Amino acid sequence: MNIDKLAAEWLAAKLAEQNATAQRILIEEQILKVCPAKEEGASSTTLANGMKLTTTGKLNYKVNVDHMLNLCAGWDLKLRPVKIITQADETALKKIRAERQDLWAQIAPAVTITPAKTAVKIVEGGE
């Protein structure tokens, strides 16, 4: 199979995927009109045909952390609704690996590198 045919098939599959996603979202909206979700948490319904339908509501919380810390500064630490998270800085890791092999040699035993999914993008007309 040649690359032109594969690219055309990929574009067709991508369009079908987008159409299927749009259709699924429309159906979900109709389902939620009949079986509304809780504001937060799961709710299950057994349908007449034996299928189980579960809707799950979720709320997202965005917080000004500095303001929050000031507001609850007098609270017991266990009650404060704030977590301090330490995580690896991937940008810094990439730079050290590429530019400072001496430093990389020291930290490499603590780092596991695995390949991510390779992205493919095709645009009609070479845009």
List key phrases describing it.
127 residues; two-stranded antiparallel sheet; 9% strand; mainly alpha
Major sheet characteristics: 2 strands, antiparallel
Mean pLDDT: 94
Sum up the overall morphology in one term: flat
Fraction in beta strands:
5-15%
Structural class: mainly alpha
The percent range for helix content is 40-55%
Strand order of the largest sheet: 1-2
Count of discrete alpha- or pi-helical segments spanning 4 or more residues: 4
- Spans of at least 5 consecutive residues with low confidence: none
Question: Span from first to last CA?
Answer: 24 Å
Order of helices and strands: HEEHHH
Number of strands: 2
What is the CA-atom radius of gyration, in angstroms? 25 Å
Short description:
With 127 residues, this protein is mostly helical.
Describe the overall structure.
The protein has 127 residues and is mainly α. It contains 4 helices and 2 strands, in the order H-E-E-H-H-H. It has helices spanning 3-34, 65-71, 90-99, 101-107; strands at residues 41-46, 52-57. It has a two-stranded antiparallel sheet with strand order 1-2. Strand 1 (41-46) and strand 2 (52-57) form a beta hairpin. The protein is flat, with a radius of gyration of 25 Å. The model has no long low-confidence stretch (mean pLDDT 94).
Helices and strands in order, then pairings?
Elements: H1 3-34, E1 41-46, E2 52-57, H2 65-71, H3 90-99, H4 101-107
Antiparallel strand pairs: 1-2
